[in-house]
Design a protein that fits this description.
heterodimer; A: 204 residues; Protocatechuate 3,4-Dioxygenase, subunit A; nine-stranded mixed β-sheet; 2 helices; 26% strand; globular; B: Protocatechuate 3,4-Dioxygenase, subunit A; 5% helix; 24% strand; binds fe (iii) ion
């Protein structure tokens, strides 16, 4: 026998189910008067530094039907590439930018929308810069463990070409599944859970 | 926040055999909502090592009291009064301070307050079904609620969910983000549920079953259930190769 390493097992995930909005966005689900506002509905204010952008899209299941009961969370750096987190050791992030947002998909159209800013570049572990990106986390009924992916900006061609994470994608025809299409100040980013256009999801 | 120095290490690899797989055909909705291709596995980057951390100032006085946070003044939710308490730790057993926990549940009759809910059990006018709290310096939390009822759901012809409370958990890194469900000790319906059975390992399922805690039961008031939560652990950064600016 040797000494036990003593590590615990992570609590197993369970689906968020059809009523995730009761817990995470109660005001959206019609339960008012408990919390003043739903958490994560606003990421920016008038003072936030950086280029204002809107991120929007839908999440499609394997039949091509948009999910109308999903919850999307995003996490991103500020305009200078700093995270608003206690674990950020490289400097102090913009106090007027939360970096984190939460949005239920519309109950009719299935669309999610975030009003945010374009993030700066953040270094990879070896010091190379990653391209500007937003981390997404998706939960819904029928999703047993939250799905993690990244949104990159299609107009950042040079940065995307040298991004160490995008470079790790073996099947190059799947890279465009992570690129948000620019249309004015709006970036469109649809997510496909299955099929020809299945989005690259991460275990990271 | 705790006085401990914030940690910056990469997270332990997630044990995907311990979690439910994406595709679990007995839970029918998963069939068209499960990615079919392999996930892209990478060591954590700063984007996953960091995460939002919430302050206690976020919380309202009744956020952790589901018996009263939706009730009319002087009234309270109907049902068996319970305290749910426990500790949030990481895989190393280190307490996670300032973890935000959000929970939601059906009322004592098994009915959710939601537009899409169709179960014939009655709504409780004094029960909303949502609550939240933030762990203390050592990772401990507690909240008060009523025990939720079991309810039927359209999957098989006659499938029922065991009594459960949904939990959403934030640690300190976005890679620790977790949603799960808590079940109650002694409920035979746990072992008949297709959602529970999406988890392949019996020991993993048992990790979701809160124990009846007679020591913390409040006499003449509320029974207690203890539910500990484990988030992903981190490596120490002490010997990691880190280039300037990282
Ligand atoms: Fe439920």
């Amino acid at each position: 026998m040797v000494q036990s390493l003593g590590f615990l097992k992570e609590t197993p995930s369970q689906t968020a189910g059809p009523y995730v909005h009761i817990g995470c966005t109660p005001n959206f689900s019609g339960i008012t008067g408990v919390y003043e506002a739903d958490l994560g509905i606003s990421m920016v204010n008038d003072q936030t530094f950086g280029e204002r952008v809107t991120l929007r899209g839908r999440i499609f299941d394997g039949t091509g039907t948009p999910l109308r009961d999903a919850l999307v969370e995003i996490w991103q750096a500020d305009a200078k590439g700093l995270y608003n987190s206690p674990s950020e050791m490289r400097g102090t992030a913009d106090a007027n930018f939360s970096g984190w947002g939460r949005c239920p998909t519309d109950m009719e159209t299935g669309e999610y929308i975030f009003e945010t800013i374009k993030p700066g570049r953040v270094p990879y572990k070896d010091g190379r810069l990653m391209a500007p990106h937003v981390t997404l986390w998706i939960v819904a009924r029928g999703i047993n463990i939250g799905l993690q992916t990244r949104l990159y900006f299609a107009d950042e061609e040079a940065a995307n070409a040298e991004d160490p994470v995008l470079q790790r994608i073996e099947h190059r025809n799947r890279v465009p599944t992570l690129l948000a299409r620019k249309d004015g100040s709006t970036y469109h980013f649809d997510i496909h859970l299955q099929g020809e256009k299945e989005t690259v999801f991460f275990d990271i | 926040m705790s006085n401990r120095k914030p940690e910056t290490g990469a997270f332990f690899q997630r044990d995907r055999q311990w979690h439910p797989p994406a595709y679990t055909p007995d839970y029918k909705t998963s069939v068209v909502r499960s990615p079919q291709r392999a996930l892209l596995s990478l060591d954590s980057t700063l984007s996953e090592i960091t995460g939002p951390v919430f302050g206690h100032s976020l919380l309202g006085e009744l956020d952790d009291d589901l018996i009263h946070n939706f009730a009319k003044p002087g009234e309270s939710a109907i049902g068996q009064r319970i305290i749910v308490h426990g500790r949030v730790v990481d895989e190393r057993g280190v307490g996670v301070a300032s973890a935000l926990l959000e929970f939601w549940q059906a009322n004592a009759g098994g009915r959710y307050r939601h537009k899409r809910e169709g179960y014939l059990a009655p709504l409780d006018p004094n029960f909303g079904g949502c609550g939240r709290t933030i762990t203390d310096e050592d990772g401990y939390y507690r909240f008060r609620t009523v025990k939720p009822g079991a309810y039927p759901w359209p999957n098989g012809v006659n499938d029922w969910r065991p009594a459960h409370i949904h939990f959403s958990v934030f640690g300190h890194g976005f890679a620790q983000r977790l949603i799960t469900q808590m079940y109650f000790e002694g409920d035979p319906m746990i072992w008949q549920c297709p959602i529970v059975k999406s988890i392949p390992d019996k020991a993993a399922i048992e990790q979701l079953i809160a124990a009846l805690d007679r020591q913390n039961t409040i006499p003449m008031d509320a029974r207690a259930y203890k539910f500990d939560i484990v988030l992903r652990g981190r490596r120490s950064t002490l010997f990691e190769n880190r280039l300037e600016g990282n």
